[in-house]
Amino acid sequence: MRSLNPIRMSGLEVLPIVEGGKGIAVSNGESSGAWAAAGGVGTFSGVNPDSYDSHGNFIPQHYYGRTRRERHEELIAYAIRGGIAQTQVAHERANGQGRIHMNVLWEMAAAERILSGVLEGTKGMIHGVTCGAGMPYRLAELCAEFGVYYYPIVSSGRAFNALWRRAYNRFPEWLGAVVYEDPWLAGGHNGLSNSEDPAKPEDPLPRVLALREVMRGFGLGEVPIIMAGGVWYLREWEDWIDNPDLGPIAFQFGTRPLLTQESPISDAWRDRLRTLRPGDVYLNKFSPTGFYSSAVVNPFLRELQERSERQVAFSVESVGDHTVEFPIGRRGRIIYLTDHDRRRAEAWIAQGFTQAMKTPDNTVIFVTPESANEILTDQINCMGCLSACQFSNWAQNEAGTTGKKADPRSYCIQKTLQNISHSEDVQHQLMFAGHNAYRFRDDPFYANGFIPTVGQLVERITTGD
Length: 465
Prior knowledge:
The chain is an alpha/beta fold and 465 residues long. The chain folds into 2 domains: 7-267 and 440-462, Aldolase class I (TIM Barrel, Alpha-Beta Barrel), CATH 3.20.20; 299-421, no CATH class. It is 30% helix and 17% strand. It contains 12 helices and 18 strands. An 8-stranded parallel β-sheet has the order 3-11-10-8-7-6-5-4. Helix 1 (29-37) packs parallel to helix 2 and helix 2 (68-94) packs parallel to helix 3. It is globular.
């Protein structure tokens, strides 16, 4: 394999190897600091990261506010405190080597307030901010205010074109790189557009070449592009390295750092990663953000699949084929179904799925009483962790609502990601992963239960393997 030459990012020459930021305490100060210490770019998650008391003990994120807005403010305080704590850990662990980046989601609650709060409290310790999940137009301005480089995540040249023309062109000196995230292979939330087929993956090379052409049109030919999603062995990407058509390229690793000694994930999570097979990571659209996301298929995800399959369209009055009266709820309110759907609904009820719950799309789903109670409880306990949530109908606006019905086909993302990050439960929680996670099973590097340090992993990656 071609040798890896250093690349300049966030004001320093580093290895062209970047740790991907994984939300809610999965990429933390320990892992990102170790990655930077190895000479690369470490990235900790700024999405509700862990914070600690004066004795160094983890502080569970409990909410005491009576209203969503009160709990929303508590969440913001947790996020800023946690972001500062993880920055300090990463800074100390890096020992002046590499670069430290913070990853945020633009669609997370109060993204601007949290980002500003963390940067204000950690001046000089964070070198770059990576941001995706939406169109972060204000990212460049916020980072420029603190003298920090910004790294937008896009899945097409068209998206970067819009960001640059509308906002980023005023802050060109602080653009550290552009992250191209493969929307079919990356873990977590993905940037598939309405014109792209989730079942038909596209080759990333032509898409990244198109992105580079857009960047060159703006005089950004020497600004690095970071390839994210689907990267495992660098030898498989050798034709990308020192490719004059692509220009400066770095590679992001999100899934492989999960299985390191510094990774904070549970033993049960580590064990599950070793057993995955091709196809065990599922690209779905159950997330309350409205984005596609990739996660490991388990009972949690299957329940969401089945929940949506037990779904029929209804009408509030007799119209067209919807002529069959059907009572739902404790009061037996009448909705109208087709005769075919009435038979399906009765079959589901006979199986124990006796609770009908309306969706924003004029459909009803059928769930067990236990599931209905959990859904309603989670919706009531919403702490406003997103700028807009389909599941609870919270929105970060004066009204505090999207104006639509809460959607029972989704889930409380804050609850499940906190649970999987701080417990051994990998069966009944959401487990994000990239689609190459199955390679842990056969990669000889991990044979006989070997778990490398981050330093050992970075060294291995630089060999091509």
